């Protein structure tokens, strides 16, 4: 189920990042927040495959050079990478918090 969600989200993310028209944000530099959260969710969902997903935050920003109405931005790329890294880190921390020792041992009476 998790892999399926990751695949669907990755396809959606690719589509959203190569779509020509983008609504503008009413908040100054609000697009950086959108980039951050988009890729934080990708990092969270794909934490076990982070090595394979790592090029995506960079490549999708470069692809925007070839999409009419879109612009390349190092700041957007930075937001993508920081969001992705933080998402992976949060996922690992959350995963590790559930792998601790059991409180009780059902085998002992």
From TrEMBL:
The domain of life is: Archaea
Entries under InterPro entries matching the protein:
VanZ-like
What are the VanZ-like domain coordinates in residue numbering? Answer: 27-92
Pfam families in UniProt? VanZ
> Which parts pass through the membrane?
48-67, 74-93
Keyword list (alphabetical) reads: Membrane, Transmembrane, Transmembrane helix
Membrane among keywords = yes
> Is Transmembrane helix one of the keywords UniProt gives this record?
yes
Protein name as annotated: VanZ like family protein
């Amino acid at each position: 189920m998790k892999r399926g969600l990751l695949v669907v989200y990755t396809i959606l993310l690719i589509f959203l990042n190569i779509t020509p028209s983008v609504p503008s944000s009413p908040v100054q530099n609000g697009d950086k927040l959108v980039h951050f959260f988009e890729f934080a969710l990708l990092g969270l969902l794909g934490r076990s495959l982070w090595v394979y997903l790592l090029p995506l935050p960079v490549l999708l920003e470069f692809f925007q050079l070839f999409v009419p109405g879109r612009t390349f931005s190092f700041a957007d790329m930075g937001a993508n990478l920081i969001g992705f890294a933080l998402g992976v880190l949060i996922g690992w921390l959350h995963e590790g918090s559930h792998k601790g020792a059991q409180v009780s041992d059902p085998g002992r009476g």
